[in-house]
Design brief:
The structure holds 2 protein chains of 2 kinds. Chain A contains 15 helices and 17 strands. Chain A is of the alpha+beta class. Chain A has 4 domains: 9-123, Beta-Lactamase, CATH 3.30.450; 140-237, Beta-Lactamase (2-Layer Sandwich), CATH 3.30.450; 239-319, Helix Hairpins (Orthogonal Bundle), CATH 1.10.287; 323-499, Histidine kinase-like ATPase, C-terminal domain (Heat Shock Protein 90, 2-Layer Sandwich), CATH 3.30.565.10. In chain A, a hairpin with a 4-residue loop joins β1 (27-32) and β2 (37-40). Chain B has helices spanning 16-28, 39-48, 65-74, 93-104, 117-128, 134-155, 158-172, and strands at residues 8-12, 32-36, 53-56, 83-87, 110-112. In chain B, α2 (39-48) packs parallel to α3 and α5 crosses α6. Classes of the chains: A alpha+beta, B alpha/beta. The interface between A and B is medium-sized, with 38 and 31 residues.
Chain lengths: 499, 173
């Protein structure tokens, strides 16, 4: 390390200038009015190579005459500092990108500029990053837009422009969804408000008018969370996934149709068996002129005709393939309704039907008719199970609960219970253990409705102890379905209204 | 046991109508009848009095037909009792595997609901090795052929079946 010279103040200043000149992390060169490089630091020599006795344009850019629009020239004239982005060649002849600060050197303020100092810094790395970023922004297989607080799109990547048209300067809701006003539940608005990242599933309309399904992530542009000026919207197109999903559902539906037809055949076979039996017994009664047998046979025929009716009714309700029609309803009220309907019937069978309602349960979007069907199926099953059990009396309880964002309906009985063989088959088409009484469609219909709500149905049972069915609906899923259903309806209207 | 003695058949079916019907058909044909509504009850009946034959439904609450059958096989004496399966689930997913287990392990023959009284009685007589009338023998043959045909068609290649169908149509022209 250099020892500090103690000669004079001027000496100290001189030493500092020299030292600074050498040590600043810039390529520094001093140039006179004739473009001669009169001095330069070692960083400069390392970057641009030998400079002594050379013109600046030769060293910076390997040119034989001054650059067009030379910034140094301007500073010589007006004494103003300048900053510019330049490209040249380094000492190895390789393309160099650098930023140059040009500052005038004058004896006194406002005096003539005899020299200028040029401090440049390599930006090849930064340039590369910029290019990479640019490439990433443009080519990434998502749609990316940047919007300002007025929902105006200020940037959009290639993929987005290809699918939604040239959109910069237009409103995002106009472009994404062909709306005239801001979307309800806009996730970007939420990000502007709380500075957080939000994710949601959306359906939009592409420039060709076809629907696009995408998962949208909105995040604030910049680090500060208050007063966010811009939000970046990134979406992944899941239209193909949705299409595949539909195809899978369709395939499943077809295979279910096959199973259903087989099951239907079975139910009809059972009814035919009853009719066959009724006819046989009546025939014997006629032969023997036996009134009792005639009555017995007639009853059997009648029962089996009635079975046909209930089979057709259940079958039609199962075959109804529709999306749930969601309304905001109070789950506890639904249960009260069922209790009212079944109280007397249950009592007639020696069953005490009661409710155990959680007061924390609040109104949610549900298809009231669908859930009604589910609960009546489960309750009538439970009453039957009590009746089939060896004990004379029974109890069926419907309870509700709301825990960890999951709404549950629980129907439990202390009836006959099921063994593992039967438990495995309860959700099979036309499977019944109720002899002639059941059609084997109740639980299946129930499960179908529950699944359409995005819920789950589970069963716990022990022979001789009883059975508990639990239907659980994640509330977030219900709310999402509700929103989707609403926005889907809106979108349908817009698609229809488009010229 | 002499020939004149009445044979006992245990009917196991959860459906009241089916029990009534089959028991009347059996009584009319000169059999003694015992009935059970499920596998568990059937086992009790077998313990009480061993039947000569069991007419068994497959899918029932409180102990399915297969479970009951497995229980029977555990007892040397009971395992010898011939079993006639009367089911509506012969060809669907609910009953197929059960039926396979039973017929493969030698339970005998099965009848698919709905069952005609004649085929039922002749099936039972055949399993018991009893004399049958000509009519009944014919019926029993018919059942056998029908069952064989059903199985063959179930296992056949659908393409070949289509070709056969076409051939038959062409012949009729």
């Amino acid at each position: 390390m250099n020892k500090l010279p103690r000669k004079s103040v001027a000496g100290l200043e001189d030493w500092m200038c020299r030292s600074l000149f050498e040590q600043v992390p810039f390529n520094v060169a001093i140039i006179d009015r004739d473009y001669n490089i009169v001095s330069a630091n070692s960083n400069f020599s390392e970057y641009f190579g030998p400079w002594k006795g050379k013109k600046c344009y030769k060293v910076y850019k390997n040119l034989s005459q001054p650059c067009l629009g030379c910034d140094a020239r301007l500073t010589f004239e007006d004494g103003q500092p300048r900053l510019s982005d330049e490209s040249g060649v380094d000492q190895h002849g390789k393309e160099a990108h650098y930023v140059v600060h040009i500052a005038p050197l004058t004896k006194r303020k406002g005096g003539a500029v005899k020299y200028i100092v040029e401090m440049s810094r390599d930006v090849v790395e930064t340039k590369n990053w910029q290019m990479e970023y640019q490439l990433l922004f443009e080519r990434v297989p998502c749609y990316i837009t940047v919007i300002d607080r007025n929902y105006t799109i200020i940037r959009a990547n290639e993929n987005f422009r290809k699918n939604f048209g040239d959109v910069v300067g237009r409103k995002c809701f106009e472009v994404y969804k062909k709306r005239k006003t801001k979307c309800p539940n806009c996730p970007a608005a939420r990000t502007f408000r709380d500075g957080q990242v939000h994710r949601s599933q959306q359906t939009g309309i592409k420039k060709g008018g076809e629907k696009a399904h995408y998962v949208l992530t909105t995040s604030p542009l910049g680090r500060q969370t208050d007063q966010i000026a811009h939000v970046i919207e990134m979406s992944t197109d899941i239209t193909d996934v949705k299409k595949l999903e539909k195809e899978v559902i369709e395939a499943e539906r077809l295979s279910a149709v096959g199973q259903t037809v087989a099951g239907l055949a079975h139910s009809i076979k059972n009814i035919l068996m009853g009719l066959e039996g009724g006819m046989y017994i009546m025939g014997r009664g006629l032969e023997a002129n036996d009134r009792e047998k005639l009555d017995q046979g007639w009853d059997m025929l009648e029962r089996n005709f009635n079975k046909t009716t209930s089979l057709v009714r259940d079958f039609l309700s199962f075959a109804k393939g529709k999306m749930p029609e969601l309304e905001i309803v109070d789950p506890n009220e639904l249960v009260e309704e069922i209790i009212g309907l079944y109280k007397t019937v249950a009592a007639e069978h020696g069953v005490n039907l009661r409710a155990d309602l959680d007061t924390k349960v609040s109104a949610v979007p549900l298809d009231p008719k669908g859930v009604h069907t589910c609960l009546t199926n489960l309750v009538s099953n439970a009453i039957d199970a009590c009746e089939m059990s060896d004990s004379k009396t029974g109890e069926v309880c419907i309870s509700t609960s709301d825990k960890n964002g999951v709404l549950s309906f629980i129907v439990s009985d202390d009836g006959t219970g099921m063994d593992s063989d039967i438990k495995k088959k309860v959700f099979t088409t036309f499977f019944t253990t109720k002899g002639g009484k059941g059609t084997g469609l109740g639980l299946l219909t129930t499960r179908k409705i529950v699944k359409e709500h995005g819920g789950k149905i589970s069963v716990r049972s022990k022979t001789g102890t009883g059975t508990t069915f639990r239907i659980s609906f994640p509330k977030s899923r219900l709310n999402m379905l509700y929103r989707e259903e609403k926005s889907e309806n809106e979108l349908e209207t817009q698609v229809r209204e488009r010229p | 046991m002499t020939k004149s003695e009445k044979k006992t058949v245990l009917i196991v079916d959860d459906e009241e109508d089916v029990r009534q019907y089959l028991s009347m058909a059996l009584t009319d044909a000169g059999f003694e009848v015992v009935m059970a509504t499920n596998g568990k009850e059937a086992l009790d009946k077998v313990k009480e009095q061993q039947p000569d034959l069991i007419s068994l439904d497959l899918v029932m609450p409180k102990g399915s037909g297969v479970r009951f059958y497995r229980e029977l096989q555990k007892n040397k004496e009971w395992a010898k009792i011939p079993v006639l399966i009367v089911t509506g689930h012969a060809r669907d997913d609910v009953g197929k595997s059960d039926l396979k287990e039973l017929t493969m392990s030698g339970a005998g023959i099965y009848l698919e609901k709905p069952v005609k009284p004649k085929s039922y009685i002749s099936g039972i007589k055949q399993l018991l090795g009893m004399d049958t009338t000509d009519e009944e023998a014919e019926e029993a043959d018919k059942i056998k052929i029908q069952n064989d045909l059903k199985n063959m068609i179930d296992e056949a290649d659908p393409e070949i079946l289509k070709k056969l169908q076409k051939l038959m149509k062409d012949q009729n022209k």
